[in-house]
Amino acid sequence: MKNIQKPGQSERFSLAPYPALRLLLGVIPGILAGVYLPFPLEAWIIICAIALFTLLGSLLYEAIKKRGSTPLCITTLSYTLFLFSSFAAGSDFRMHYAPRNGLLPFTGKSLILYGRVDGRPDTSENGTGWIMDVEEVFADGRTVTLHDRAMVFMRSAGEAGKGIRYGDRVRVKGQLNLIPEAANRGEFDPRQAAAMKQVSVQLYSAGPWMVQHEGEPELNGFERFIVKPVADYIMKSIEDLIPPGEESQLAAGVLTGEKEYLPEELFEAFRITGTAHILAVSGLNVGLLVLAIHISLQRLKVTTAGRWFSFLLAVFILLVYSHVTGNSASVKRAAIMTAVLIGGETLGRKTFSMNSLALSDVLILLFDPLDLLSPGFLMTNSAVASILLLYPRFTPMTGCGGGAFQAAGRLLFSSFAVTLAAVIGVAPVIAFYFGTFSLIGLLANIPVVLFSTLLMYALVPMLVLNLLSGYAATFFAESAVLFARLTLNSALVFSRVPFASLSWKPDLPEVALYYLMLSAVLFYFSRKAWGRLALSVLLGANLLFWYSFTVHARPVAPLLMTVNLGRNLVTVFSVGGKTLLIDAGRSASSFKRITQQLELHGYGAPDAAVQFYTPDSLVSRLPVQHHMLQADRLLALPAMLIMRPREKVLKIQSRESSLLVVSGSSRLQESELFKADIVELWVYRFAEKQQQQIGSWLNYARPTHCILIPGSFLSRTDLAALGRFAAAHPELEIRSKTRQVVIK
C-alpha cells in the first residue's frame, strides 16, 4: 500500500515512455554541431567510425557475458557519440560540400542545362521557379556530363508557368550565376536557404521560349499511376466546380498547397493576422482525412484483420496525400505522427502524443537533417508541441451535458484555447524569422480557422461525390465558395485593424530564455508548486528584460546608409537628428523593408522623402512630414538644405557633411556645386570617355567617399573596367545588390 500515490501528490516526470524523444535529444545537437562547428567532414567520419566499433564491441561483450538488462556505461556513451557524430557528418556534408565537378566553374556564362525538375515548381506573378537535377551542360560549344543541382527561374506571366511540372525533363537556356546573399542586414538570405537544399547556383531564363521539354516526365510507378492522377483529379475538380477567382485559389491552397496565385494583398492579410498557417497543408487536412477513414471503416475494426486493413489503408492514403501536397515538413510530420498513433491503436498499445511527434521528427531528419533549420519545420513543431502540452491545462475535463448554447460555448472556448496554446508556442519562432508579432492573432484565428475548417469539410465530400455525380458535387462546391469567401473576408477585416501587428525580432538567446521559462512554468504547474511557478515567471521576465536592455541598446545611426531593393536603391541620410530618404523603391510594400532597416540601424522615423527615380505618386504617399517631388527645386529643413540644380542631380548640404547624387557621368561638372563629402554616381557606360570624365572630376572634387552605382544594362566589359578603375582609387566603392553601404 505504500506505493499508492497520495491524493494531490504530483507524478514524477520520466522520459521512459518517450524513447523517440530521447533519441531526438541526441539528434538535434549532432545536426547543429555539423552545421555550425568548424570541424572537417573527415573528423566527424573518424569519430563516427570509432564510436561504431566501440558500440559493437561493447554489445558483443554484453552478449558473451550475458549481463542484465542495464547496458554498460561504455555502451551508452558510444551509442550517444555514434548518434551525435553520424548526424553531424550528414548535416556537415549536405550544408557545406558541393560536387567537385559541378556547376560552379560555369558561373557567369550563358549556357544550356539539361535535367529533371525536382519538386513542385513555385509560380508567382513574375515567373516560375524550380530546382533542377542537372545532368548535362552545353557551354562554349561543348557538352559536359555532370551531376549537380541548380535553381532555375523562368520569367513568365499568367498561365505560361503551369507548363512546368514535377518530373519533367527539360533543356533551359539562360545565364548561370551564384545565388546572392541577403540584400540587406537581417533579411532573408537566399544563399543560406539554397545551401540547405544542396544548391549553390541559379539560372535566369528570359521566358518560356527558352525552355524545351524532352520526352515524357520521369516518374516512378507510384508517382505516375497514383500520385499524378490524384493530383490532376483534385485540381480538375476545383477548376470545374468552383468559379475562377480568389475562392478557387484559396481552395487549391488549403487542399493541395497550390497557393502561388493568391494576390499579394491576401498574403499580407493572412500574415498580419497570424493566420497564414491555414495556407499551408498540415495537421488539419491530415486529421480530416483520418477522420473520414475512421468513420468509413469503423465496422471493420471489430476484427484483427479489419484493424490491420484499416491501418494499411490509412497509411497508404496518407502517403498519397503527402506526395500530392509536395511532401512539405508539416504534412510529413502530421502523416507520420498520425500513422504512429493509428499503429499503436492497431497493436493495442498506449501511445504518447509527444513521443509520436518526436518520432515523426526523427524520421524527417533522418532523410534530410537540414530540415531542422527550416522555419516551417520549427513553427509546426513549436505549435503542435505547445498545443499538446498547454491545451489540456486550458480545458480541464468537463461534462458534455447542457443545451445547444452551452455546446456552442464549449466549442468556441475550445477553439480559443487551441489558438492561444499555438500562439504561445510559435510566436517567438515567427518573431525570430520574420520580425513581427500579430496582436490581433488570437481573435482573428477564431473565425478564420473556423471557416477554413468548414471549407475543408465541404471540399472533401465535393471531391468524393464528383466521382459519382458532378451535379451532386456542386452543392458542396457552393458551400466551399461561401466558406472560402468568409475566410478571405475575415482575414482582410482583421488585417485592417490599427496596430494589428508590431515589429519584434528577438535573437537566439532571447528565444531560448523564453522557452526555458515556459518549460519551468509547465513543470511547476504539473507539480502544483505555485510559488516556484510565480518565481519562474518573475525570474524569466527579469532575465528577458535585462538582457534586452543591456544587449539591445539602440545603435547610433550612421551618417549614410543604402537599402537594396533589387535593381532599385534607397539612400538614407541623417544629419542633426533629421533623417532624409532619397527614393523609396517601386512599390508601396518597399517602405516596410525600409522601415525595418531604419529601426535596425538606429534611425528615427524619416522626416522627409526626396524623389530621384521613384515615381512621384509613390513618394507623395510616404508617411513623412516633407515631400520633395520631381518638379521641386528646393527643400529647407532645420538641419539641411536639399537642392535640385538640374535634372537627375541632387545636392544635400549641412554644416557637418554634404551629399551629392548624380545620374550619369556626363552631368558631372568641375564647379563648387558638384563638390561633396559623399557622392553617389550612377554609371551607365564606362568607355574611355566616361573614365576621363570621372577621373578629371575626382581630381577636382576629391570626395572622401564616392559610391559608383552600375546601371542595369552596363556591359560585362564595362563592368570589369569599372572594377579596375575603382581598385586604383581608394575613395571609390562599387555598389553591390547584396551589400549595404554604411558610412559613419
Task: Report on this structure.
There is one protein chain. By secondary structure, the protein is of the alpha/beta class. About 50% of the residues lie in helices and about 15% in strands. It contains 21 helices and 21 strands. The protein has a seven-stranded mixed sheet with strand order 14-15-16-17-18-19-20, with helices on one face. Strands 13-12-11-10-9-21 form a six-stranded mixed sheet, covered by helices on one side. Helix 2 runs antiparallel to helix 3 (about 75-95), helix 5 packs across helix 9 and helix 13 (about 405-435) packs across helix 14. The N and C termini lie far apart (about 75 Å). Mean pLDDT is about 85; it is low at about 1-10.
Average predicted confidence as pLDDT: 84
Percent of residues in helical segments?
40-55%
Radius of gyration, taken over Cα atoms and rounded to an integer in Å: 30 Å
Oligomeric category:
single chain
Based on Cα principal axes, name the global outline. Answer: globular
Largest sheet: 7 strands, mixed
